[in-house]
User: Fold these one by one.
Assistant:
Number 1:
Amino acid sequence: MRIVRSAAELPREGELGLVPTMGAFHEGHLALFRAARDENQLVVASLFVNPAQFGEGEDLERYPRDEKRDAAFAEDAGVDVLYVPAAEEIYPAGFETWVEVERLGSILEGEHRPGHFRGVTTVCLKLFNLVRPRRAYFGQKDAQQVAVVRRMVRDLAVPVEIRVVPTVRDQDGLALSSRNAYLSTEEREQALALPRALAAHDRNLLNGLEVDYFEEADFEPRVLAAAVRVGNTRLIDNVIVEGET
Ligand code: AMP
C-alpha cells in the first residue's frame, strides 16, 4: 500500500473505488474497504478529519487520530493507496465555495448540527474531483449522509456511483463508531439502549438518555434514525424500516 499526501501522486490508470474516511478505523471501515476491493481494480481510502463538518464545541480537537495504526489496518483490508491530503489541498487559502443540499441536509442531523452536511458534501465533491473514482463507498450507519451525498451526485450529475455497505455492529448490538472510544464502561452499557430502542421501535427504551431525535426518515431505504447523547458523547444509529420502501 502506498501512502500519498497530494492528489498529484494518485493513480490515473484503472477503475478506482474510493472510501472517504476520517480515520480511527474499525470493522465498519474495513467492510467498506473490502466491498471496494471486490468491485474495483484499485482501492483508494482517503483519511482526512474534515474540520468543515464539525460544529463549534464539537469534538474536532479530540477526534481520535492514529495514522500508523490506520495504515496497517487499511493495508490488511486490501487498500492500494491511502490518501492523506494536507488541509491546504482540500481548503486552499481563499476557499469560499460550498455545496449545500438544502432540505435533506437541514433535517434530523442537519437540524442538530447546522452546517454539518454542507461540510460533508463539499469535502466529498472535492475528494471525488481529486481522486476521480468510478465508485465511492459509504456506510448505512450514516443513513442521512448517504441520502444527502446521493442527492448531490444526482442533482449535480457527478460522475460517480455511490455504493452503500450495511452497518457493522459489535456483538452486543452497538454500531461501531470511532466515537465509541470516548465511552466509559458504564456509558457503553447505557449506549446499548440506542440499538435496542431502534430494534424495538420503542423510544421509551431511551429513558434517561438525552435524545436529539428518534424519527422515521424517508430515505431510500426508509429508516428509523436516532441520535442520543451519552455523557459527552453523541451517538447516531438507524435501522431500515422493512416493507415500507
Ligand atoms: P467516518 O470515518 O466515521 O467518517 O466513516 C467513514 C465511512 O465509514 C462512512 O461512510 C461511514 O458511514 C462508514 N461507517 C462508519 N461506521 C460504520 C459501521 N459501523 N458500519 C458500516 N459503515 C460504517
Number 2:
Amino acid sequence: MLTGSGAQVKKVFILGSTGSIGANALSVCESLGKDYRIVGISGHSNLNLLARQADKFRPRFVVVTDSDGAHLAPEKLLRSHKVLSGDDGLQEALFRCAPDIVVNAIWGTSGVAASLSAVEYCRTLALANKESMVVAGEILLSRARDKDCLIIPVDSEHSAIFQALLSGRREELRRVILTASGGPLRNLKKGELSSVSPAQALKHPVWSMGKRITLDSATMMNKALEMIEARYLFNLTPEQIEVVIHPEGVIHSIVEFCDSSMIAQMSVPDMRVAIQYAITYPRRLSNSVAPLDLVRLKRLTFLSASERRFPALSVGKFALEMGGTSGAVVASANEVAGAAFLEGRISFPRVVEVVSEVLQSHSVVLNPEMDTIREAQIRARERAALLVSKSFSRKRGHLR
Ligand code: NAD
Ligand code: MG
C-alpha cells in the first residue's frame, strides 16, 4: 500500500503494547503519521487498556498472550476485533500480518519465544526485550540471518552503540562503554542496602520504566543483562565491554575506536528516541522529544562502577566469560529473586546473591539448542526458588 507521498506504508506489530515501551511505541507510530500503520498489538494483562488501544489504532489482530486470561477480555473488544490468544495466536497473527516491523516490548524471558517467531515473519525486529539476546542470542541472530531479518536494538545503551558504530569499521572497534545511571540507591552505602524497601527500589531518578526493569536498575542486574545483550548483539569479547556510572543519563553509551576516538550518543532520557530510531532506521525523522539543553545541563559526571558496591556487575562479567547457557540462567534466576524481593520475602542485597549462587552452581553448556536453554532456565528457577525459601525461613526466624 502507498501513502499520499508515494512511500510504502510500513506495517508495524507491537508485542507488549500495554507496557511502558509498548505504549510509547504506539505513540511514536501515531506521531509518525500515515507512513506507519499498526497491524497488530499484544498484551498479557490490563485487557481494558488493550481494548482502548485496539479501538484507537484499529489493528488487524489483537493478541491476548495469556491464554488462561483471554476470557476476561472486554466483551466489546471481542465483538469488534479479531482477537487471538496464547503463543499459537501470536504466531498466527504474525504469519497472517507479515509485518515490516515488529517491536518486541514484552517483559522478561517470556519475550524470547516471541522474538524467535517474529524473525520468521518480519523484515525488522525492533528489540526492546533484552532477555531475547541474553537467553538465546546466538540462536536468534542465526535465525534472523537466515530469514534476512534486521535486528535493531531499542534498549537505549545498545541503540547508542548501534548508532556510534556507524562512525567506523567493525575491525576498528576497540571497546564499548555502557553507561549506567546507578539507579535510585546509588548514593546508599553497602551496609544501608539491607533495609531498602520495594518502594525505595522502584523510584528511578532518571528514567520512567516498567516496574521490573526499574528494580533491575536498582540492583544493577539490568546492567549485567545489558553486558550480555551487548556481547551477542555486537559480537564482542568480554574484555571489550565496560560499564561506567553516569548519573545524568544523557550519554546513552560510548564506542571507542582503535585511534582512541570515542563516539557517544546523547539525548534527553526519553525512550521514544531509541524506539523511533529502531522503527524508522536507517532514516531519522523529526519528533517532539525535547532537545538536550547542554548549557542548562552544565556538566556530565562519570564514576567508576565498582563491583564491590555493585556485585551484579561481577555476575554479568562472570556470565560473559562463561557464555553458552549462563545468560539464560542469570535472566531466569533474576526474575525469581526480583519477584521474591518485591513480595517482601528476601532482602534487597539477597537478590543479586541468589542470582550469583545459582550461576555458580550451573554447569554451562556452550552453543546450546533451544531445548537445552529451556532446561537450564527451569533448573535456574527451581534453584533460585529454593534459595529464596531458605532465606525466607531464616528471615522469619529473625536470622536474616
Ligand atoms: P512493562 O512491564 O511495562 O510491560 C511489559 C509488557 O509485556 C506488557 O504489555 C505486558 O502485558 C507484557 N507481558 C508481561 N508478561 C508477559 C508474558 N508472560 N507474555 C507476553 N507478554 C507479557 O515492561 P517494560 O518496562 O515496557 O519493558 C519491556 C521490555 O523492554 C523489557 O524486556 C525491558 O527490559 C525492556 N526495556 C525497557 C525499557 C523501559 O524504559 N521501560 C528500557 C529498555 C529496555
Ligand atoms: Mg537500557
Number 3:
Amino acid sequence: MRTKIWTMEEGLSGAVEALRQKETVAFPTETVYGLGADATSEEAVSKIFKAKGRPADNPLIVHIGERSQLSTVATSWSETAEKCMDAFWPGPLTVIVPSNHEAAPNVTSNLDTIGVRMPDHPVALELLSKAGVPIAAPSANSSGKPSPTTAEHVYEDLNGKITGIVDGGPTGVGVESTVVDCTSEVPVILRPGGITKEDLERVFDEVQVDPALEGTGERPKSPGMKYRHYAPDVPLWLVEGEDERFVTVLKYYKEEGKKIGVIASRELAAKLDHQPVAECGSRNNMAEVAVELYNALRSFSETDTELILCETFGEEGMGTAVMNRLRKAADHIFV
Ligand code: TXA
Ligand code: MG
C-alpha cells in the first residue's frame, strides 16, 4: 500500500472517502496527529491496531465534531462530564463516560466505558463533520514511539501501513489530551495532558489523580498507561538536579568516548559547550517545552548518536505531562 499525503490545497474529500471505505487516515489535531478510522466499524478499527502494532487491550479515544454526537457512543453521563465538556471542549481533554456499546468492541477493548473528545483543530473538526460518524483515533505513531507532531513524523512510522495522511502542518499543544475519568462526582486524571490539573481545579472543588501516576506501583486505571511509550530510537537517560550536575554527567560520558545527543531547555543549552543539542523552549514556559518535546525525542533517529541525555523539569502545569512522557520514554534516570 502506498500512503497518500493530502495537502491542504487538495481539501479533505479524499480523506473523507477513505474513512467511508473503512480505511485509515492520519489527521492533525491540536495535540498530536491521530490515526483515524470509523469507530462504528470493527473492521476499520482493526486496521488501526494492525498499522500501529498496538496491543488489543489498549482502548482508543473516539473523536467527535459536535457535542450532539456524544449520544452515538454513550447513553448517559455525569454532571462531571458535562462540566468538563462545557469548560474544555473543543480542546485537549478526553472524558471517560459509560459506553452504550454502539462503538465497535475493539474501540473500547470491551470495557464498559469509552473515551471521547472534541479536538480544537479546524482540519480535524471539518474532517469529523464531513465523515459524519465518530472517528476512533489513537496517536498516529508506531506503538511505543513518540507521538507525531508533524505529517512527516507520521510518514516515518506508518508509510505503507495506512491509506493516507492529511498534512495540516505542525500541531499546537505537542502532548496528548488529558484523560479524565468522569464516571463519578470527583474527576480523576488518568493521563496528564494538554489541560492541566490547575485548569481543572478552576472548574472543580476537588480533582483527583490516579495514584498509579504518582509511582505507587498500583495498576493504572487507563490501560495504555502501563505500556512503555514515547521511546526514541536511541537510549534516553534523564538527569535530575542542578545544571552543574548535568554538565558533570555530560562531561563524564563524553570522556568515555560516547556520542551524546542532548535535549535541553534554552537555559541549560546556554551553559553547555556541546553539539548536537535539541533545544526545546524555555524551562520557564512548559507549554513551549511540550510543543517541542516529541520532535526533540525523534531528532536523533538515524544519526550516530549513541545516548541521549535530557534534563528534567518542574512538575507544575504542563510540566506534569512533559515529565510523565519523559519518564515513560527513559531507559534510565539519574536521581
Ligand atoms: O490527544 C490525544 O488524546 C490524541 C489525539 C490523536 O486525539 N490521542 C491519543 O490516543 O493520545 P492514544 O490512543 O494514544 O491514547 C489514548 C489513551 C490511552 O492511554 C488509553 O488507555 C486511554 O486513553 N483510554 C481510552 N479509553 C479509555 C477508557 N475507556 N478508560 C480508560 N482509559 C482509556
Ligand atoms: Mg499514543
Number 4:
Amino acid sequence: MPDRTPPDRPVVSIRFSAAEIASRVEEMATDLAGKLEPDTLVVSVLKGSFVFAADLIRALSRAGADWSMDFLTLSSYGSGTESGTLIFTKELRLDVRHRHVLVVDDILDTGKTLNAVLERLRRLQPASLKTCVLLDKPERRSGSLQADYVGFSIPNQFVVGYGLDYDERYRNLPYIGVLKNPPPAE
Ligand code: 5GP
Ligand code: MG
C-alpha cells in the first residue's frame, strides 16, 4: 500500500507501547471496579479521551463493574500545542442528578479543562464525582487539582497517539509517543 503521509509530518518516538497501555488500563479497571458505585455514569471528555474511555469501559466490564456512559466535548480554540479558550460544544444527554459520576479524560495538564468539566458537573448535583485520567503532567498544574485515578505521570512533553492529537492527526496511533521535531506552538 502506498504511504500517503506528507513527508514533513513530525516523527514520533514511542513513550508507552500499546502493550504497556493495555496492561495499565487493565490494572486501573480492576482498581476502579472494586471502588465504583453500581451504575456509575462514566463521562468521557471528547475528543482526546475516546480511545482510552473505549478501552477502559470494556476493561471495567471484564472486572465486573456496572456503568453507563455519556460524552461531553470541550473544545479549545487554536490548533497547535497550546490551549486557548474552552467552550462546551457538546453537552451530556443523560441525567446526572443523584448519579455517581466518573469523569474520564486523556491528560491532566494545567487543570483548566478538568476544572471546567467538574464545575459544570457539580452544578448538576451528582451523588459523587470522581476523576480518572490516563496521563498526568503535574509540572504544568496551575492549581491544586489532582485526579483520583491516574494511568501514568509524565514530564512536560507534548504527547500524541491513543486518542491524542497534534493538529487532529496521530489519534490513531496504538501507542503514546513524543513528537521528535514539534513545530513551534502558535
Ligand atoms: P489542561 O486544560 O489540563 O491544561 O489540558 C488538558 C487538555 O489539553 C487535555 O485534555 C488534552 O486535550 C490537551 N493536552 C494537554 N497536554 C497534551 C499533550 O501533551 N498532547 C496532546 N495531544 N494534548 C494535550
Ligand atoms: Mg482533552
